[in-house]
Design brief:
371 residues, 16 helices, 69% helix
Amino acid sequence: MRSDAALLEDDLAAFLASLTGAAAAAPESVYEAALGRSLYAPVADAVGSKVGQQALVRQPTAGAPAGGAPLRPSMVFWAYRNYRGFPGPAGEEASAEDLAAVRRAAVAVRVLLKAAVALDDVQDGSGIRYGEPALHVAHGIPLALNTGALLITAALEHAAEPAVVRSLLRSVGRGLTGQAVDVSTRTALTRAELVAAPRAERVAFWESTAALKTGTLFWMPLDAAVAALGVVEDERRILDGAMRDLGLASQLFNDLTDFVPEFAGRGTHEDFGQLSNRVFLELLDSAPADQRAPGELVGARLKEFVLGHPDLRPTLLVLAAEAVELKRAAMEAVRGVCRSERSARYFDVTIERKGHLIDRLHATLLKGDGA
């Protein structure tokens, strides 16, 4: 597992060098200097190993091989190991061709995620990403948008395998669709429609958006890998459902942490600019009539309504338990297609950081409730 993660980091470094390798240490012309500042530098910041990269990687566990930087397991490599097996005694691989396709897919997936971060931060107005200035803060909005678009095209070209490229294109489309609907909750019309809608419709709205926006982050690497490996349709459907559940669990976690200081830190109680948080949507039925008019339940008034709601704490507990159950169901489904216990352990480690946080959030809320 650690060797797979190290392989991915090496491949990412090579990919980055292919995009920025022409950067001159001492530019000989105005054009070269401008290219370095406007293209190579933001690409390196978006993809390269910065301080914030530590937030994305998993620290080695006890008993893991020592040495080297912390590494992040990849869902793409899990799929390869599950369907093609682990290296033999001499390090030999079952299929060098499949491994090459999976390596390209893993790089493409990671780069697409980096592109999504650059674009989302602009749309969400996020000035900090993993403790560092966001790309658009460091380089300006025009260059951040250009870098995000460039990384998408470069990632798709790098994937090369037609089936993988088609899978990644679907993922990009899904992610952008989810982002569009999520952003729409800042508009007066969508907010008014959500306030007027019954709870079931609000929850369906949230699930559809979360499955596209957050679920795609889990679905994309796995679908790209199984496309490269030609996994049978029945198992692809099982994996699709599991990744959807993981995405919903992850989005619930993100929504709930806005209300739990132990997890959100200084960001607690700050995200009241849009009406996409599941907690908000659960509580809207009791909004006073005078706050249901368009433009009323927003910003400070929404914050006052939610934080002062008598059902806030029970709602947090119910949603945290839902996240735990979604995560459990997803892991059980994936274990059902694992070819070996070793493969099952690989998958568990791949998602253990987020899975552990989901469990810990639920435990924290239970403790605070005296349960």
